[in-house]
Each structure stands twice: as C-alpha cells, then as structure tokens.
C-alpha cells in the first residue's frame, strides 16, 4: 500500500487488461474511478473528444489518468482501406492523445498519464499493420508530450500478447512468447507511482 493514495481515472476498466490494472492500483490504496462505454462508474466513449471533455468534468480533480483501451482493425494490408486507417487512428491514437491534451487542466501538477500501446509497434505480424501504425504513433506522442507537460508525467505500457489470452490470439503471434497480465499491471503501477516520464515500458 502506498503512503500517498491517488485519485485515478481508469479508462477501459471492464476489459481483460483493465480489470488487472484496477486490481493492482486498488491494492495500492488508490481510489480508482472506472470508465467504459457501457460499464463503469462513468460511461463515456473516448473516441469522441466531446465525451472526453464531459468525462473530465464529471470526474473532478485527478492525480492520474490510466488508459487500458484502444481498438484497431486487423486485416491483410491489401484489404485495409482509408476507413480502416482512420478507425485505427481514432480508436487508439486520437482517443489517447485527447485524454492527455484535455487532461492537462484536470490532473494535479505532479500527476501522470499512462497510455497503452503494444508489441506490434516493434514486432509486426501479418494483418497487424494498422495496429503497428497506431502503437508507434502513440509511443512517439508519449516521448514528445513528456518534454512539454512537465512536471506532469506521461508514459506508455507496451505489452506482448497476454499469457491469459494465448488460447484466443496465440496463433497470430507465433514464437513471440507472452506476458502475464499481472506483470503488465505492475508496469501501470510503476508509471502511476514512480517518477519517470517519457518512458515506453516494453513487456
């Protein structure tokens, strides 16, 4: 348990990763406010900048914003059309950029943002081009934002496929191994409770 409990906004709390992150942060004594499109303490769609603004107004003052959400299409490259690329950008890049941009005014002076990317930013797979593009864009944004929003901090967690999800997705990641959800969740703890900024925690 931390000596300084924080007021944390967790986006994507109802998903596989979000539930693990929720448990890890709550075990540290933090007050975690859950956000989702259809479940959670607050119901907002972060692909809509107007809903992000409403979310921050509803949430009140915060110490940390944590994202465990981001959707991208998976298709062979030849089948990816302009709408797919836009969906990847809106679903994972713009949504998280807006969380930071709008959140600067709502997060404490020494507060933090933790975004989510993924292994496809550095280890591409067949059908994963849109995800690779989105993940790489988020990571580049984190490094750029870190030098502008200080003393607020921003990091990203970039995990491999989850061990718990190998039955469903393992065939897409041949020979790439996996990472347990608990370890990924601890990277979020590191970002929220640590002092680093501009980091990509690769797992």
TrEMBL record:
GO function terms (MF aspect): oxidoreductase activity
Keyword Oxidoreductase part of the UniProt annotation: yes
Keywords of this entry: Oxidoreductase
Pfam families: adh_short_C2 (PF13561)
InterPro entries linked: NAD(P)-bd_dom_sf, SDR_DHRS6-like, SDR_fam
Source superkingdom: Bacteria
Family: Belongs to the short-chain dehydrogenases/reductases (SDR) family.
Protein name as it appears in the record: Short chain dehydrogenase
Organism the protein comes from: Streptomyces mexicanus
């Amino acid at each position: 348990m931390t000596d300084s409990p924080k007021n944390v906004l967790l986006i994507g709390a109802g998903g596989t990763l979000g539930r693990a992150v929720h448990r890890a942060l709550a075990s540290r004594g933090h007050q975690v406010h859950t956000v989702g499109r259809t479940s959670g303490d607050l119901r907002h769609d972060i692909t809509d900048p107007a809903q992000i603004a409403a979310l921050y107004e509803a949430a009140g003052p915060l110490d940390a914003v944590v994202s465990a959400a981001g959707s991208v299409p998976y298709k062979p490259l030849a089948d990816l059309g302009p709408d797919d690329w836009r969906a990847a950008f809106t679903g994972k890049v713009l949504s998280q950029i807006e969380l930071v941009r709008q959140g600067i005014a709502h997060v404490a002076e020494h507060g933090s943002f933790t975004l989510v990317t993924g292994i496809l930013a550095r280890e591409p797979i067949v059908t994963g081009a849109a995800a690779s593009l989105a993940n790489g864009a988020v990571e580049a944004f984190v490094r750029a934002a870190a030098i502008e929003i200080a003393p607020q901090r921003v990091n990203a967690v970039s995990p491999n496929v989850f061990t718990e999800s190998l039955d469903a997705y393992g065939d897409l990641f041949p020979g790439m191994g996996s990472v347990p959800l608990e370890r990924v969740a601890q990277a979020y703890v590191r970002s929220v409770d640590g002092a680093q900024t501009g980091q990509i925690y690769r797992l």
